[in-house]
Specification:
The complex is a heterodimer of chains A (208) and B (399). Helix content of chain A is 66%, strand content 2%. By secondary structure, chain A is mainly α. In chain A, strands 1-2 form a two-stranded antiparallel ribbon. In chain A, strand 1 and strand 2 form a beta hairpin. Chain B folds into two domains: 211 residues, no CATH class; 112 residues, no CATH class. At the A-B interface, helix 10 of A face helix 6, helix 7 and helix 8 of B.
């Protein structure tokens, strides 16, 4: 392409300023579904990052040969192939987590972030920037998942990554885990809090 | 004294930063020098502080009866035969006082902070909410849970939407719903609705393994094969009849057991014009209609459907929700036709949830919250229908 893309901003912008979840509000469905615990949230984030990075590269490589009319189908085929690979890998090496994530790995295909990046970036850019863009957006997605999963697991189950964090003496004193944190609605509220904090510290991002 | 302090809070004074706190205390303790010209919710033009105080007055009978009933149930649980009135009242008072204090301190604290941050006057909307919260929770709810739930609902239901008068959902009900979903074991079941421990030397200790489920809880878990639980049994081992549930001498959340006291509150609200009679009447109609339908097709699958429609209205939080929650002018429907639809659906859905989902015996809470969400839609449809009708009429006239 003629206009030069700045690799640095391509990679770092999605972390916060252009975050796919809290700024573009994409991929909310999976944030609700997998963040009840920290571990599946991180695995999900990693899977999306891998799929996103490689599908971006593949689509970017063949972007000039894809007929415009069927580009969505081609993109889906590429993504689906990668998702199957990731799914099988998880089943082989992290069976417990893959059981917890159940259909949501498969549903990465329908994750709006993927289609968004493929359409908006990979179709118009060279492979290397596309790869950076994929990794950057994947990490941005993972950051939000990690924060949400951290808060929800800590308050909802009193554990982090499966380890007991809240001491037993608290429970004896009458502390009870917040059951609402396990339920999906709370993920929305946690994400809303992240958005709130982010907009608060970046006044120029506030929507009028 | 407040007048002497005033200059230091004015613009330029050294304590100007705390002006909203000063204003709040001043108008709370003394008559404000200027009352609001229009209400915080634009559909009513009475000073909102006066509205709040009348609602609190209407809630007082429930509060007083709640104290008595708490003591009464406690004495029953301890197996007492005599019920000294003042001791019962004192016990109930001591049981509820910390809950009121916690709700007010947390809620008002957040309101003060937000008003301070925004540089606005303190909004008095929490006066009623703080009074409602202890009334709709079980007596044994731990204090810190009330604090967490109150903080959650004041921040996320009220302040983020812009404060008093802008909330989509009823704040007190969201507090209850938050408690219900976050701490289910503390909010339902057999052990939370009756106080079992002595307070400041008053009362006794209930025997170990004591259980005191609410009538609704008993019916929902009734085993129809053996016939146990279909008729709820009071703590004294005698079946609860309709008269008892009307008076309210049954286990339940603090202030919502007595239909009689709720009716007194309803009369106060209606006489002063604070609440819409349309919502109350249509909600009762909706409850009766749904109750009758459920009763007509009663199945052993849903034990609640054997309860007669009239008893449905008197058990649990139905009456309380209809009188004090559904009529909240901020979250209810605002068009007059809309109020009929809104009320009817509140009543019908409350009984529907209660009867056909044994997991949620307290359907009234969920019904009001659901209808809160739908109220703007109802209003929109009513207004649009009206516009269409008038346009048609205008066309007929011009033709």
């Amino acid at each position: 392409m003629a206009d030069k893309v700045n690799n640095r901003s391509v990679f770092f912008n999605p972390f916060a300023k252009d975050n796919p979840v809290v700024v573009q509000v994409l991929g909310i469905c999976s944030v609700l579904a997998v963040t009840a615990k920290l571990e599946p949230a991180m695995v999900m984030g990693l899977s999306v990052t891998v799929v996103l990075a490689f599908s971006n590269v593949i689509i970017s490589l063949i972007r000039k040969t894809i007929p415009v009319n069927i580009r969505i189908i081609v993109q889906l085929v590429v993504v689906a192939g990668l998702v199957v690979i990731v799914n099988e890998t998880l089943k082989a090496f992290a069976y417990d987590v893959s059981k917890q994530l159940s259909v949501f790995i498969g549903l990465i295909i329908t994750n709006c972030i993927l289609m968004g990046r493929l359409e908006a970036f990979a179709m118009a850019n060279k492979p290397w920037p596309s790869f950076l863009d994929g990794v950057g957006n994947g990490i941005g997605y993972t950051i939000v998942l990690a924060i949400t999963g951290f808060v929800r697991e800590l308050l909802g189950s009193g554990t982090l990554w499966g380890f007991q964090v809240v001491p037993q003496s608290w429970y004896d004193a009458g502390y009870v885990n917040n059951g609402l944190m396990i339920l999906p609605p709370m993920a929305l509220i946690v994400v809303a809090c992240i958005i709130w904090a982010q907009r608060h510290f970046n006044p120029d991002m506030q929507e009028k | 004294m407040m007048d002497r302090l005033r200059p230091s809070f004015e613009e330029g004074g050294k304590l100007h930063a705390f002006k909203s706190v000063y204003d709040g205390m001043d108008t709370f303790l003394f008559t404000p020098s200027e009352t609001s010209k229009s209400g915080v919710h634009i559909h009513d033009s009475i000073d909102s502080k006066r509205v709040m105080i009348i609602v609190v007055l209407a809630l007082l009978p429930c509060m007083l009866f709640g104290m008595y009933n708490t003591g009464y149930q406690h004495w029953l649980a301890c197996g007492a035969k005599e019920f000294p009135f003042w001791e019962l009242m004192a016990y109930g008072f001591l049981a509820v006082l910390p809950r009121i204090v916690v709700a007010y301190v947390v809620g008002l604290g957040i309101e003060f902070c937000v008003a301070q941050l925004r540089g606005e006057e303190i909004q008095e909307g929490f006066l009623v909410t703080g009074f409602l919260i202890p009334l709709i929770c079980p007596v044994e709810t731990p204090l810190w849970m009330i604090a967490v739930a109150t903080a959650f609902s004041v921040i996320f239901v009220k302040e983020v939407f812009g404060g008093t008068g802008y909330n989509v959902f009823n704040v007190a009900l969201v507090t209850r719903a938050f408690l219900f979903f976050a701490y289910p074991s503390q909010m339902s079941g057999d052990n939370v609705f009756v106080a079992t421990k002595p307070i400041l030397g008053l009362g006794g200790t209930a025997p170990d393994g004591f259980t005191g489920a609410t009538p609704l809880g008993q019916i929902a878990t009734a085993d129809l094969a053996s016939g146990a639980g279909v008729t709820p049994i009071g703590l004294d081992g005698v079946a609860i009849d309709s008269w008892q549930s009307f008076l309210g001498l049954i286990p339940g959340s603090f202030g919502e057991t007595s239909t009689l006291c709720i009716l007194i509150g309803a009369v106060i609200l209606l006489a002063t014009g604070m609440a819409s009679w349309k919502i109350m009447v249509s909600a009762v109609a909706g409850g009766l209609a749904m109750g009758a339908i459920a009763h007509a097709c009663a199945t052993p699958l849903y034990p609640m459907s054997f309860v007669s429609p009239l008893d449905q209205l008197m058990l649990g939080g139905f009456a309380f929700a209809v009188v004090f929650m559904a009529t909240d002018p901020v979250t209810a429907a605002r068009t007059e036709t809309g109020k009929w639809i809104y009320g009817f659906l509140v009543g019908a859905i409350a009984i529907l949830i209660r009867t056909y989902n044994n997991g949620y015996p307290e359907g009234a809470m969920l019904a009001v919250l659901l209808m809160n969400a739908l109220a703007p839609l109802i209003d929109y449809c009513v207004v649009e229908a009206n516009v269409a009708r008038r346009r048609r009429r205008a066309r007929v006239l011009t033709d």
